[in-house]
Amino acid sequence: MCLGIPGQVVEIVDADQHLAKVDVNGIRRVISVRLLADTGPAVGDWVLVHVGFAMSKIDEAEAQLTLDQVKKMGADYVNEIDAYNSTEIA
Q1: pLDDT(74) > 90
Q2: Distance of CA 32 to the CA centre of its chain
Q3: pLDDT value at residue 80
Q4: pTM exceeds 0.85 for this model
Q5: Collapsing DSSP states into helix, strand and coil, what is residue 22?
Q6: How far is the C-alpha of 50 from the C-alpha of 52, rounded, in Å?
Q7: 72 exposed, middle or buried (CB, 10 Å; 0-12, 13-18, 19+)?
Q8: What does each C-alpha distance from 58 to 28, 36, 50, 75, 90 come to in angstroms?
Q9: Exposed/middle/buried for residue 89 (C-beta within 10 Å: 0-12, 13-18, 19+)
Q10: How far is residue 25's CA from residue 34's CA, in Å, rounded to a whole number?
Q11: Cα–Cα distances in Å, from 18 out to 5, 14, 82?
């Protein structure tokens, strides 16, 4: 199963290459925010992350609700966090 996990942008690493550092459940990784180039995510914004890419911007309430629901999925949530932890765009 493929899930999108909410993460908070903590740093714009390379604006020209559309790279940002995002915190997902305490794990920080550099991901591509190229798909959001039109809206330009900023530090503090919440995004929905899947396989190293920010898929959409979401608000904090939606991020928390999504995290709460995804955590209830048990093994699928753990697998998605493991996948996020093992990937990074360099």
Answers
A1: no
A2: 9
A3: 67
A4: no
A5: strand
A6: 6
A7: exposed
A8: 18, 11, 14, 24, 25
A9: middle
A10: 22
A11: 19, 6, 24
DSSP H or E segment with residue 50? strand 46-50
> In the prediction, which pLDDT does 73 show?
74
Structure confidence by residue, pLDDT tens digits, 7-51: 999 999 999 999 999 998 888 999 999 999 998 899 999 999 988
Q: State the average pLDDT over residues 50-69.
A: 90
- Indicate the residue type of 70: V
User: Both tokens of residue 60?
Assistant: 């904090």
Beta bridge partners of 73: none
- C-alpha closest to that of 54 among 90, 89, 16: 89
